[in-house]
User: Fold this.
Amino acid sequence: MEDSFKTIEKPCEGYFKDKGSKFIAYAYPVKNEEEIKDLLARIKKEHHSARHHCYAWRLGEEDPQSRANDDGEPSLTAGKPILGQLQSYGVTNILLIVVRYFGGILLGTSGLINAYRTAAGDALNNATIRTGWIERFFELHFTYEKMNEVMLIVKQENLNVVKTRFEESCQLVFSVKKSEAQRVETIFQNIYGIDIKKAETC
Assistant:
């Protein structure tokens, strides 16, 4: 079962120049569309005199959603080549913007596709790509008498404790790799006095 994904560790940049036109690429790790809107607005403000601000993004660790935008360039000559590089590198949770400063000479369809693809590729070549794990989250409810038993399993299975609340009764939220989720869930289900249910992503 596939339970990993790739994304970039931190923002990075790339560059390409052709016939006087400059293509500056910016790649950012992102978590949601709100972040994407903010970053696009920031880049457009910083490069307000640029002719085009083309971009593509992918979001989601399983079945990623994607979008590409040509921002005034001929259809499919900018956003799609940028998105193609994201797909080629297999990265998600990423926004890649390529800013174009027009150099006065038209590049033609193939020239534009090459320029945007190359600038995007240069940014990704400069990126630190990391592997993350697709996780499932579970919530446990149990009494203090079961505390030692629960914590022993947490340690043995190397579970990631996300949240705890110990009051009259105990609550613990943990995450586990997708491929291990069903097995770990069964372990807790088989212990009398421990209630387990799936939790929302934290």
In short: The CA atoms of residues 12 and 126 lie 6 Å apart. The domain at 134-198 is CATH 3.30.70.240 (Alpha-Beta Plaits). Residues 108-125 form the longest helix (18 residues). The helical segments are 33-46, 79-89, 108-125, 147-156, 178-189.
